[in-house]
Design a protein that fits this description.
alpha/beta, 7-stranded parallel sheet, 8 helices, globular, binds guanosine-5'-triphosphate, binds magnesium ion
């Protein structure tokens, strides 16, 4: 089989499983986010800062993907919420089947929110739907402001751009105005939050976005047509 039909088949199968997951998330009122960035942009750091702001009775669970190690799961488990590492063993993205398997022994009805940290990669994860309500792309100011133009797929598909590591702006030549303009060129109307996981600047905006987006996901469920 040539490469194109095989790729189509793999993505078609992934879409079917993702649709099944999305239906389950909607049914059980689980708000699911898929965090994507290049390696080291700060996905785990953003999740750490988020979890420390949640009250202990928040019904949140996390799946974190990496090619090797369970380092990120260990970092996130310190906050006392359900955490599972998905180690792909070489695959450069999470796919819907991995998510389905990881959720098999978790009672979805006991959750409100599922946060997925994808494998560090700005390209492949953008092709794989995981059944999430929204994708969030994290770009750090150490990576260059042209990334939205060079890797447009993920900036087009993500609802929110988190510009992280703003504390480093005095030390790197990153034109934040250009970064914003490039992101908006690829994805007109895209929401953008500037923050620093190190200083905490901008984290309130992120937490407000999270709360707002969760509420709008609930409203989508309320508007969804019921069984005939
Ligand atoms: N200066 C600064 N460093 C940060 C910030 N956020 C994260 N870092 C550092 O950046 C490095 C990578 O952060 P991680 O949170 O592990 O990044 P990641 O995206 O989860 O990385 P992968 O899972 O490997 O893709 C760590 O050393 C963090 O301490 C920030 O806002 N400012
Ligand atoms: Mg990480």
């Amino acid at each position: 089989m040539s490469r194109l039909p095989l790729e189509k088949k793999v993505l078609g199968e992934n879409d079917r499983i993702a649709a099944r997951l999305r239906e389950r998330f909607l049914e059980r009122q689980v708000f699911c986010l898929n965090l994507i960035s290049s390696p080291g942009a700060g996905k785990t750091s953003l999740l750490e800062r988020t979890l420390e702001r949640f009250s202990p009775n928040t019904r949140v669970a996390l799946l974190t993907g990496d090619i090797q190690t369970d380092n990120d799961a260990k970092r996130l488990a310190r906050f006392g919420f359900l955490v599972k590492q998905i180690t792909t063993g070489g695959t450069c993205h999470l796919d819907a089947r991995m998510i389905e398997r990881a959720l098999a022994d978790w009672p979805l009805e006991s959750l409100d929110t599922l946060l997925i940290e994808n494998v560090g990669n700005l390209v492949c994860p953008s092709s794989y739907d995981l059944g999430e309500a929204a994708k969030v792309v994290v770009l750090s100011v150490a990576e260059g402001e042209d990334k939205p133009l060079k890797y447009p797929a993920i900036f087009f598909k993500a609802e929110l751009l988190v510009l992280n590591k703003t504390d480093l702006l005095p030390y790197v030549s990153f034109d934040i105005k250009k970064a914003r303009a490039y992101a908006l060129q690829v994805h007109p109307g895209m929401e953008i939050i500037e923050l620093s996981c190190t200083t905490g600047a901008g984290l309130d905006d992120w937490m407000k976005w999270l709360g707002r987006r969760r509420e709008s996901a609930k409203a989508e469920k309320a508007l969804a047509p019921g069984p005939a």
